[in-house]
Sequence to fold (94 residues):
Amino acid sequence: MAARAEMAGLKAQRAVLQRSVGDRGELTGLPRTEAIIEVLERSPSTLTVAEVQAALAEGGRQEDSANAVRATLSYLKKADRVAHLKDGTYVSVG
Fold:
């Protein structure tokens, strides 16, 4: 029963990430900062660093490591383009 619930949760998470990026490869032509903003703006919910990284990979940006995404989110937070919420997730503020 727990495995079924976990699988349902994973499927729902994947659906959110797919809605966040649209067509595969469409983020490859953007700078990392803009690709992350695009992912956050399209997402119906807030995202963790791992979820942002997964959405970038779904959009064709497999080269963006977790550290690179984390550093870029920190930069975007300082520039007041994203907010880092208490639960560890991020949201676009633009």
Summary: The CA atoms of residues 73 and 79 lie 10 Å apart. The mean pLDDT is 85. The chain is about 55% helix and 5% strand.
